[in-house]
Design brief:
Blueprint (H helix, E strand, L loop, with lengths): L9 E2 L1 H11 E5 L3 H5 L6 E3 L15 E5 L4 H12 L4 E4 L2 H4 L9
Parallel strand pairs: 1-5, 2-3, 2-4, 4-5
Amino acid sequence: MFSLFKRIPSMSTADLQKEGAKEWTVLDVRTPAEYRSGHIAYAKNVPLNKIAGFTQKGDKKLAVICQSGMRSKQAAKILSKKGFDVVNVRGGMNQWRGTTKGGK
């Protein structure tokens, strides 16, 4: 009965910043406008409403981020059900202290 609710692992933005693009494929599930306003340089924008169609070449683990961690948690659940090795980035871009690309 308990196996019906698979727990999605999470990581902090600090851990993501330490490990970076070498270890992770980072998916930013915010809207394109939010993404353009500032994003992690190596993150790929795949909005939450398109995440079910996501495919990936290679076997890198997925780290999913949004603005606060709520949409990314939903996306991580969807990706996990599709068989991806995925983590949710807690706190999202609100907690990101690294450099960003785009925005003002």
